[in-house]
């Protein structure tokens, strides 16, 4: 098990990790998620004793990494697949690591087979593709047959077959009772690989829960209804009926209605009673990616100026019961970066916040909600990430 308690790391004025406490348990694949620069690699380096915490501590199997007897046989890690001597063959690279830890050469050939590099074992690694380098890094992590494994972006550069292989490998390692801690930005992959998630933003814990709970806590499902094309009157009629019945209705750019707060059978009945034909009535279940975007969008440091992140516009005043002929609010297509579903009526946590559009996002709807607040309780002595130095400031500090 990996246990972090109050883990904090500062680089000069930059707080990379702040007061992070979590446990990574054996027998599960635990995903480690967070936007760029949120502190994942720094946390992993502290777990592996490569960086010293400014305060707090982290242990593996009850000991700080540096106090572990024969650590390479207890903990294996892939942090940077490029950190190899390119002039050495894959086999010689692994052999040198094995010799340092008293691991027999037979194990080198074994792991080369596990990662599928047996045919190129005697080739210099500088000629390796990104995916082959990842496989070599994974082989190095497996060398000591460790009980605890850390992988920083293990599927980086792998082709679909390689990604599937890593997925199955992670699951198999966890099924063998090992502790598997893996960071990734590939949400679709995490959704099918991880059992548990630790999510951080700006160095602070945002969530520590199962994938299932994370999705249900951070997303809202909705129904999509489409009336016959070329007959906007039907759509307007349906929108009014659904709103009158307590639904929240938004219009997608393609003309479909996105509805929350009403079940599919209820929408169907209301449409039938109103004499509106439906060409589509379908459920939309939130994905891990949507849930993740919704939770972390306020903790993203680096964002393109072209990314307007307009979000949703809540129903405006003219969209009330019985009103006809209004302009329906338009929402982005799904999936879209920055998308998140509307909260139920009366539970809008952004209602009091300054609307994003009012802050000058060009082209944003007038009432677009501000980004959601971080879900973790704000520590009393939290750093001020929003006003803190940017990555480049910190680089300057570090020089
Ligand atoms: N050695 C260092 N000196 C100064 N600042 C650093 C150092 N290492 C990391 N940082 C800063 O700490 C913050 C966290 O970086 P870290 O690499 O841990 O994030 P990350 O979540 O792994 O990011 P990514 O997903 O992009 O790999 C960043 O702002 C980074 O610039």
TrEMBL record:
Residues 2-227 form the ABC transporter domain. Gene3D superfamilies: P-loop containing nucleotide triphosphate hydrolases (3.40.50.300). Residues 351-367 have a biased composition (Low complexity). Coiled coil: none annotated. GO terms for molecular function: ATP binding; ATP hydrolysis activity. Pfam families: ABC_tran. SUPFAM superfamilies: P-loop containing nucleoside triphosphate hydrolases. Keywords: ATP-binding, Nucleotide-binding, Transport. PROSITE patterns: ABC_TRANSPORTER_2. Residues 368-382 have a biased composition (Pro residues). Residues 337-399 are annotated as: Disordered. Signal peptide: none annotated. Belongs to the ABC transporter superfamily. This is ATP-binding cassette domain-containing protein. It comes from Streptomyces corynorhini.
């Amino acid at each position: 098990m990996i246990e972090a308690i109050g883990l904090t790391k500062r680089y000069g004025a930059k707080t990379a990790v702040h007061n992070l406490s979590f446990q990574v348990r054996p027998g599960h694949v635990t995903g480690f998620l967070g936007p760029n620069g949120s502190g994942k690699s720094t946390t992993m380096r502290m777990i592996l004793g490569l960086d010293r915490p400014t305060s707090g501590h982290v242990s593996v199997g009850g000991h700080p990494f540096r106090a572990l007897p024969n650590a390479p046989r207890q903990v294996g890690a892939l942090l940077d697949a490029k950190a190899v001597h390119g002039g050495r063959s894959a086999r010689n690279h692994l052999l040198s690591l094995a010799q340092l830890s008293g691991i027999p050469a037979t194990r080198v050939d074994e792991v080369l087979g596990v990662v599928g590099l047996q045919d190129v074992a005697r080739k210099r690694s500088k000629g390796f593709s990104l995916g082959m380098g990842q496989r070599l890094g994974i082989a190095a992590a497996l060398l000591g047959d460790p009980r605890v494994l850390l992988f920083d972006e293990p599927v980086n550069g792998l082709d679909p077959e390689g990604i599937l292989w890593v997925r199955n490998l992670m699951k198999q390692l966890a099924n063998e009772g090992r502790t598997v801690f893996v960071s990734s930005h590939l949400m679709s992959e995490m959704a099918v690989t991880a059992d548990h998630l630790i999510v951080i933003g700006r160095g602070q814990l945002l969530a520590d829960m199962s994938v299932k709970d994370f999705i249900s806590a951070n997303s809202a499902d909705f129904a999509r209804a489409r009336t016959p094309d070329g007959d906007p009157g039907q759509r307007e009629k349906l929108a009014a009926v659904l709103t009158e019945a307590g639904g929240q209705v938004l219009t997608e750019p393609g003309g479909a209605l996105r509805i929350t707060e009403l079940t599919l059978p209820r929408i169907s009945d209301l449409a039938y009673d109103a004499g509106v034909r439906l060409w589509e009535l379908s459920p939309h279940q939130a994905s891990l990616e949507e849930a993740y975007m919704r939770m972390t969008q306020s903790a993203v440091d680096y964002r393109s100026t072209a990314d307007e992140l307009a979000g949703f516009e809540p129903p405006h005043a003219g969209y009330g019961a019985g009103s006809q002929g209004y302009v329906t609010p338009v929402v982005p297509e799904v999936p879209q970066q920055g998308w998140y579903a509307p909260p139920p009526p009366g539970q809008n946590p952004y209602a009091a916040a300054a609307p994003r559009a009012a802050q000058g996002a060009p082209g944003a709807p007038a009432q677009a909600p501000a980004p959601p607040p971080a879900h973790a309780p704000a520590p009393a002595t939290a750093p001020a990430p929003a006003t803190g130095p940017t990555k480049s400031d910190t680089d300057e500090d570090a020089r």
